[in-house]
């Protein structure tokens, strides 16, 4: 078996820095997408900590976009020779605050490459460290994990492996329709052109899914939004999130969680059949 991780080990340590402004129009669009009042945000307003993810987009030129809608590999991200690429998890800390109007920078570094063999073939996990700073002071630190996967076999059917059930002991719950407008608006905000989120023919024929795929980062975002409604106003100090299985546009997203215990709150997302899709742990400041 080809040792892809060793082949690309020289990419570990590669860095890139991107600058962006925490702009008022972007923040108000995010608020509108979440059915919040956009006019509650003004220049100087602190944004919810987890909203950092809609900034520092990859502004690849049209000629730099690959067949899948992602920027082509080989610039910052290594050209790992597996065609499918998806976000699978993150660990984040919020040592500072981002405010509307801040001029911020994001430094990203390739931190690790690991190869595994899964039911669907070769998997290569890429870890990337991100630090978002304002005035030289860190506001967000993140370790993000992305997986590269083999193309599906020509005769492959949609994956239907034994699902992990959602936890049984939920104290609260909420539901969202995974409608195409919601997914489109989030993809537009984050400048995400991955075709699995809007091109059903591509998703079926080339990536082996039954239809358009819910944006995993959006799933995590909605879980965190619902959890924070139950956090009694405490400041979010950090979170970890893991995607377990894909969800699909047109279905129901079921979010639930447990009441906060000490400094943490557990929340998760599942599909209509009760299969776990994502899990999150939120960590708060000032808890006894």
Tell me what you see in this structure.
- Residues 77-141 form the FAS1-like dehydratase domain.
- GO terms for molecular function: (3R)-hydroxyacyl-[acyl-carrier-protein] dehydratase activity.
- The protein is an alpha+beta fold and 288 residues long.
- The protein folds into two domains: 1-151, Thiol Ester Dehydrase, Chain A, CATH 3.10.129.10; 158-288, Thiol Ester Dehydrase, Chain A.
- The chain is 16% helix and 33% strand.
- It has helices at 4-7, 24-33, 180-189, 200-207, 216-228, and strands at residues 15-21, 84-93, 103-118, 121-134, 137-149, 172-177, 236-243, 252-257, 264-270, 276-284.
- A ten-stranded antiparallel β-sheet has the order 1-3-4-5-2-7-10-9-8-6.
- Strand 4 (121-134) and strand 5 (137-149) form a beta hairpin.
- Helix 2 (24-33) runs antiparallel to helix 3 (180-189).
- It is globular and about 50 Å long.
Keywords:
16% helix, Thiol Ester Dehydrase, Chain A, 288 residues, 10-stranded antiparallel β-sheet
What would a concise description of this structure say?
This protein has 288 residues and is α+β, with helices and mostly antiparallel strands. It has 5 helices and 10 strands, in the order H-E-H-E-E-E-E-E-H-H-H-E-E-E-E.
SSE blueprint:
Layout: H1 4-7, E1 15-21, H2 24-33, E2 84-93, E3 103-118, E4 121-134, E5 137-149, E6 172-177, H3 180-189, H4 200-207, H5 216-228, E7 236-243, E8 252-257, E9 264-270, E10 276-284
Antiparallel strand pairs: 1-3, 2-5, 2-7, 3-4, 4-5, 6-8, 7-10, 8-9, 9-10
Helix pairs in contact: 2-3
């Amino acid at each position: 078996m080809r040792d892809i991780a060793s082949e690309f080990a020289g990419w570990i340590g590669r860095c890139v820095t991107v600058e962006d402004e925490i702009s008022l129009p972007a923040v108000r669009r995010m608020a509108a997408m979440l059915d919040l009042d956009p006019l509650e945000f003004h220049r100087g307003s602190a944004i919810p900590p987890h909203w950092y993810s809609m900034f520092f987009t990859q502004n690849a030129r049209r000629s730099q976009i690959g067949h899948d809608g992602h920027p082509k590999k080989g610039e910052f991200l290594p050209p790992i020779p597996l065609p499918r690429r998806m976000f699978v998890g993150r660990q984040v800390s919020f040592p500072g605050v981002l405010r509307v109007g801040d001029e911020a920078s994001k430094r990203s570094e390739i931190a690790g490459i690991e190869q595994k063999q899964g039911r669907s073939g070769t998997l290569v996990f890429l870890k990337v460290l991100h630090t978002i700073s304002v005035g030289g002071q860190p506001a967000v630190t993140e370790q993000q994990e992305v997986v590269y996967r083999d193309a599906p076999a020509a005769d492959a059917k949609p994956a239907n492996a034994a699902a992990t059930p959602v936890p049984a002991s939920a104290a609260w719950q909420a539901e969202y329709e995974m409608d195409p407008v919601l997914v489109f608006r989030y993809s537009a905000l984050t400048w995400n052109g991955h075709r699995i989120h809007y091109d059903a023919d591509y998703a079926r024929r080339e990536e082996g899914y039954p239809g358009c795929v819910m944006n995993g980062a959006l799933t995590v975002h909605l879980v965190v939004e619902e959890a924070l409604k139950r956090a009694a106003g405490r400041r979010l100090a950090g979170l970890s999130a893991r995607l377990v299985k894909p969800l699909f546009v047109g279905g129901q997203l079921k979010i639930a969680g447990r009441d906060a215990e000490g400094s943490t709150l557990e929340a998760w997302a599942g599909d209509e059949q009760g299969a776990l899709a994502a899990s999150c742990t939120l960590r708060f400041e000032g808890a006894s």
